[in-house]
Design a protein that fits this description.
The protein is of the alpha/beta class. The protein has a single domain (about 20-260), classed as Aldolase class I (TIM Barrel). It has helices at about 5-15, 30-45, 65-75, 80-90, 105-110, 110-120, 135-145, 160-170, 190-200, 220-225, 235-240, 245-260, and strands at about 20-25, 50, 95-100, 125, 150-155, 175, 210, 230-235. An 8-stranded parallel beta sheet has the order 4-3-2-1-8-7-6-5. The mean pLDDT is about 95.
Length: about 270
């Protein structure tokens, strides 16, 4: 039986396209705008949304997401606020959400308490970029007990042996990092490298493979969809509505994201 996240990728495949995954920082610029942005992405047919939990030392993130986290923290956004906006989104019938968090906020909140509260609020999964495979046993066990999926990251430098272990432990999908360094729209994916990485992973897992880091345009989305099951856009999406709020943020975001969603279609297919 397919998990909820696997169902998302299977549905996209049946529609002859890759899954589109959008990243949003909770509380940037405020929680009302976050809810409006989540609704906008759902209406634009994003398959899955990564809802970022703001953190003061986001090691894997580039300047755009770091700045968004800082704005959110300056507003006083708490983990409880993130759960509330997630619950509100779930009740509105929006696209499924995975939480994106560094481990420290989860640890401080309490691992079991976090996974239980996240699931009740409506999350279908959690991604923790700074938690190594061998250090993730407790969180993975707690996530499994509450029916939360936990995709894991494979970096460009990950050996094929370790990548196989990560893919086996991942649930929902495998997050394929497209290049070395941090997130950011100004550094494009190393397509040749990530294509090889995806091909290697195809040999060790049947789980969906989604590519992130540096994907920022319809052209880069289209290129990634030729070999991956899903594509993630974060920094460029945040930049699209940075400095705006409410309805204005939604207008900017809609204009930016609709061509990206359309670009997920396989060659010769139109996303309707």
């Amino acid at each position: 039986m397919l998990t909820r996240l696997e169902q998302i990728f299977e549905q996209a495949k049946n529609q002859r396209r890759a899954a589109f995954i959008a990243y949003v920082m909770a509380g940037d610029p405020d929680l009302e705008t976050t809810h409006a942005v989540l609704s906008c992405l759902s209406a634009a047919r994003a398959d899955l949304i990564e809802l970022g939990i703001p953190y003061g030392d986001p090691l894997a993130d580039g300047p755009t997401i770091v700045a968004a986290a800082q704005r959110s923290l300056k507003n006083g956004t708490s983990l409880a606020d993130v759960f509330r906006v997630l619950e509100r989104h779930r009740k509105s019938g929006g696209a499924p959400v995975v939480l994106f968090s560094y481990f420290n906020p989860i640890y401080q909140y309490g691992i079991e308490r976090f996974t239980r509260t996240a699931r009740v609020a409506g999350a279908v999964g959690v991604i923790v970029p700074d938690l190594a495979l061998d250090e993730s046993l407790e969180l993975r066990a707690s996530a499994r007990s509450t029916d939360l999926q936990m995709p894991l990251l494979v970096a460009p430098t990950t050996s094929s042996e370790r990548a196989a272990r990560i893919a086996e432990a991942a649930t929902g999908f495998v997050y394929v990092v497209s290049r070395l360094g941090v997130t950011g729209a100004n550094a494009t994916p190393n397509v040749t490298q990530v294509r090889r990485q995806v091909a290697m992973l195809r040999g060790v897992t049947k789980k969906p493979l989604a590519v992130g880091f540096g994907v920022s345009s319809a052209a880069s989305v289209r290129e990634v969809t030729t070999f991956a099951d899903g594509v993630m856009v974060g920094s460029a999406l945040i930049s699209a509505y940075a400095g705006t709020r409410g309805d204005e943020a939604v207008r900017h975001l809609r204009t930016f994201v609709e061509p990206l969603v359309a670009a997920t279609a396989w060659e010769g297919v139109t996303v309707s």
